[in-house]
Amino acid sequence: MRITSGTRRGFLIRGATSGPEVRPTSALVREALFAILGERIDGALVLDLFAGSGALGIEALSRGASKCVFVEKSPQAVRLIRQNLEKTRFKEQAIVICSDIFRSSGRIRSLSLPFQIVLIDPPYRMSERIAPGEKIFDLLVRLAGEEILAEGGLLVLQHDRRSQVAEVIPLYGRADRRTYGDTTLTFLRRDSSGG
Predict the structure, then answer these.
(1) Looking at residue 157, which CATH number applies to its domain?
(2) Domains in the chain, number
(3) pTM attached to this predicted model
(4) In a domain, 16, yes or no
(5) Is residue 6 in some structural domain?
(6) 195/87: higher pLDDT
(7) CA–CA dist 54, 81 (Å, integer)
(8) 3-class SS of residue 57
(9) Residue 116 falls within a domain, yes or no?
(10) pLDDT at residue 194, rounded to an integer
(11) Which residues contact 51 (CB under 8 A, 6 or more apart)?
(12) Domain residue limits at 90
């Protein structure tokens, strides 16, 4: 897997091993995502959830993010993230948390970092239906309500294009939605009136 742009452009990092839960973000989708984010990434504090190999967060650092917190529950994947951070020399700009995000938002909140950008790339089976009562929907609302996402901050949810995504998610305004093949990126902005 190759970093597509920024200070580490062309660096090869290791991708996560194959398996039913593993679905690395393609280079095309990564490039499109960061093209849309544009200058927002400069100096941003970034949170990469379901981080896998860390490719999205490392790409953010390469493109100018000031710091990235990676959250991943698989110890094997966490070792891979650490190796990739070592290889790209981003270790000092990163915090890696081995934990299940559904149980660890308090640990993230304790960092006292309201994030400007949150990247969420859950297993597709978990994001088939994003509606009240579903885990990902409730996580989105919690991230804004607990002020983990800064006011006006942007959350990017990657999911299958066939996923059912609620039109209204409390505390967010819909900023954009783009589809690339089977992958959709939904951009949500934390409303200044909420959270």
Answers:
(1) 3.40.50.150
(2) 1
(3) 0.90
(4) no
(5) no
(6) 87
(7) 5
(8) helix
(9) yes
(10) 45
(11) 57, 70, 71, 72, 77, 81, 96
(12) 27-190
